[in-house]
Amino acid sequence: MAASTSLRFAFVLFWISVLASTALSDLVISKIDRRVDLTSQIVRVVSTLKVENRGHDTVSEVLLPFPDIQAKNMAYLKSSYHEGKGKGKQSAISLPVTLVHPEGMPPELTFYSVSLPRGLGKGDSFTLDVLTVFAHSLKPFPAEITQADAQLVVYQDSAYYISPYEVKVQTLAVRLPSGRVESYTKYPSTKLVDSEIKYGPFENLPPFSYIPIAVHFESSYPFVVVQELEREIEISHWGNVQITEHYNLVHGGAHIKGGFSRIDYQSRPPMRGESSIRHLIARLPPRAHSVYYRDEIGNISTSHLWANSKMTHFEIEPRYPLFGGWRTSFTIGYGLPLRDFLFESDGKRFLNTTFGCPINEIIIDHLIVKVVLPEGSKEISATVPFITNQWQEVKYSHLDIVGRPVIVLEKTNVVPEHNMHFQVYYKFNNLALLMEPFLLISGFFFLFIACIVYMHTDMSISKSSASYLAKQQLDEVRATVQQVQNIINRVLSVHNKLETSLRDLSRTGDVQSCKAVRKAADGLFKDLAKELKPLLGFLQSSPQASQIWPKVEELVAKEKEMQEKLMAKHSTVVDSFEKKHAKRDVENRVASIEQKLAILRQEVDELLDTIDDF
Amino acid sequence: MASKPITSPVPVEWYPSLSVLMLSIGLVLTASFFIYEATSSKRSRSLSKEITIGAVASFFLGFGSLFLLLATGVYV
Fold first, then answer.
1. Predicted ipTM?
2. In this entry, which stretches build a coiled coil (chain A) (predicted)?
3. Which one, A154, A257, A343, B37, has least CB within 10 Å?
4. Is beta strand A289-295 parallel, antiparallel or unpaired with respect to A152-158?
5. Do the chains contact at A451 and B51, CB–CB below 8 Å?
6. Which of A423, A444, A453, A455 to mutate against chain B (most B CBs within 10 Å)?
7. Dihedrals φ, ψ of B16, to 5°?
8. What is the pLDDT of residues A259-297, one digit of tens each?
9. Distance CA A200, CA A185 (A)
């Protein structure tokens, strides 16, 4: 592996020497400091370039070349500069970077072009910072180790900064996780101080100068590589943002050779496998709730959660420690309050959340972010600060009719630097929120309607059989008896009204209103008697009613008697009131009637009860 | 850019109590609906009364079950 890489570098070198004469010569890099950070599995290179224009034409862009071997692992490239100098330095302002294919350049190099904020005139200089992040650039060597071995890795680069411009002064510093270095390429002016290797300063180098270096060192950092991560962000306007993350994880470091000993792992710390993945820490947003951690076979109980007002720490342990080449897959999920992530501006709603995964210092080979918007969202667009593949899908979930629109963002080679905020804009009408309850309501209503229809339909097959006809008639009789009961009850309520009017009369002495009540009652009695007549006629003639008919007849008779008595009482009382008889006299006169009324009332009540049981 | 956060139409903390309240009203109405169906005879039954009770009961049951789903963490 190392040998083939060197060969390719040599090939590059060949091309470089051929094409060096055609290099751009207007710009000169007067000073460049490169700092390579190898403390984790992710390689971060911070370069500070000072470019100077020695030509006559104004220059507004700087080319940054990368050998293809590096370019294919490059995950992130950011260029920025600081306005002002010294103490007046302000925060970094980023510069636009684009991939370009300039003519006449070696094909083994990939070029990026940084646009400067202003054109550089003759003799002007400009200082910019470039951060490049590489994934999978540390190769384990040896590629297989036993459980007790330390993990050794190799990093390759050029000691000289590869540039299409002449470089005046340059230095390179490589920071390692520890001072334990197996070997490193030594040139004059190379020194190892603590855990840092320094190359340079090198002076006055022509364009495309190149000398390879290799650093072979110990890194016990667990190489957590997520081969595929699918994040699903589901928005519910009922107050929740649900995030579900499916991880497909592999230990990307040196493969394990020989067996795994749990006893060594548990009891002998030096033998335990320093570079294995013991646990992962996810930093979830504050106020995360309903956090879970599971895989295909169920809940994984080895997890811990701490929460404070700024962050929710979620520590998860895989089911087994992960050694080189071992893989696992699991799912974590959590809910977040809606108000922290969903906003409204200019009539549009937007989700504002982070792109990458919440676990620290991992490389994601293939990341898919799905934002599931509520049903009825329109005019969906996503704003992501870097290039992603985007497309739209439809997802069917709880209580959906047409499905929820999903915007999918896909990106490969994702590093923690990509953990930036992105926005998904969409339009949503609040009335669409009522779709879900409406669906539930119509479901229940359908049930009731089904019951009503069932109760109202006649399902019998033979509609002419004797038993069927008998049942029909019995039903009719029952309905008629119920109607009779209703009428009697209404009559009784009129009785009560009359009694009340009498009491009012003795209290207020208002004869007119009492007479009015009487008149109304007379009318009502007449109407009700009219209503009652056909019902009684039907009951009398129906053979099915033979049992109940005597009772009904008796009831009607008793009621009539009661009505007469009451009328008599009413007339007597009103009459004596008008003639101003003594109160006692009146009471004496109606006492006998009242007695009879009470008896009748009791009888009528009993009859109503017996009919009720029919 | 003035952007204001969006919140749920009903405070999230109310979901459990709302669900209990509306479901119990809905179940009482459902019970009264079935009692009416069982006790009234075919001829004396009034369709409009049945439909009214059914509609009101399904309104309460619908919202009650929605809030039950939300309270248990199934954000629809």
1. 0.95
2. 583-610
3. A257
4. unpaired
5. no
6. A444
7. -60, -45
8. 888 888 888 776 677 888 989 999 999 999 999 999 999
9. 13
Residue whose token pair is 């929710």: A312
Helices and strands (H and E) in chain A: how many: 8, 32
What is the spatial distance between Cα B65 and Cα B71, in angstroms, rounded to a whole number? Answer: 10
- Flag whether residue B62 sits within 8 Å of chain A, measured between CB atoms: yes
pLDDT digits (tens, 9 = 90+) for A217-262: 999 889 999 999 999 999 999 999 999 999 999 999 999 988 888 8
Q: Tell me which residue has tokens 């490059």.
A: A74
Nearest CA to CA, how far is A368 from chain B (Å)? 22
Give yes or no for A343 touching B (CB within 8 A).
yes
Partner residue facing B61 (CB), from A349, A444, A479: A444
Cross-strand bridge partners of residue A224: A251
* A501 has pLDDT over 90: no
Selected residue of B1, B6, B48 to mutate for chain A interface (largest A Cβ count, 10 A): B6
Max intra-chain CA distance, chain B: 67
Both tokens assigned to A159: 């000691």
Quick one: pLDDT at residue A112? 93
Q: Do A441 and B57 touch (CB under 8 A)?
A: no
Arithmetic mean of pLDDT over chain A: 87
Residue pair A131/A44 in contact by the 8 Å Cβ criterion: yes
pLDDT band for position A2 (50/70/90)? very low
A403 touches chain B (CB under 8 A): no
Closest by alpha carbon to A229, among A333, A361, A329?
A329
Cβ contacts of A483 on chain B, cutoff 8 Å: 44
With CA atoms as reference, report the closest residue to A77 among A419, A421, A417, A423.
A417
In DSSP terms, A110 is beta-bridged to A66
Query: What is the tens place of the pLDDT at every residue in A139-171?
Result: 998 999 988 888 999 999 999 999 989 999 999
Beta-bridged to residue A153, according to DSSP, are: A140, A217
The alpha-carbon gap from A298 to the nearest alpha carbon of chain B, in Å, equals 19
Using a 10 angstrom Cβ sphere, with 0-12 exposed, 13-18 middle and 19 or more buried, the burial of residue A246 is middle
* Cβ atoms A319, A295 nearer than 8 A: yes
- How far is A108 from A353, CA to CA, in rounded Å? 38
Question: First CA to last CA across chain A, in angstroms?
Answer: 99
A463-A469-A473-A476 Cα dihedral, nearest 10 degrees = -10
Q: Is residue A140 within 8 Å of A128, Cβ to Cβ?
A: no
Interface probe for A, chosen from B25, B29, B35, B58 (most Cβ of A below 10 Å), is B58
Q: Measure the CA angle with vertex A488, ends A482 and A493; round to 5°.
A: 125
B66 and A436: CB-CB below 8 Å? Answer: yes
Neighbour tally for A279: CB within 10 Å: 13
pLDDT at residue number A348: 92
Q: Cβ(A26)–Cβ(A47) under 8 Å?
A: no
Say what the pTM is. Answer: 0.78
CB contact under 8 A, A335 and B73: yes
Pairing relation of β-strands A298-299 and A342-345? unpaired
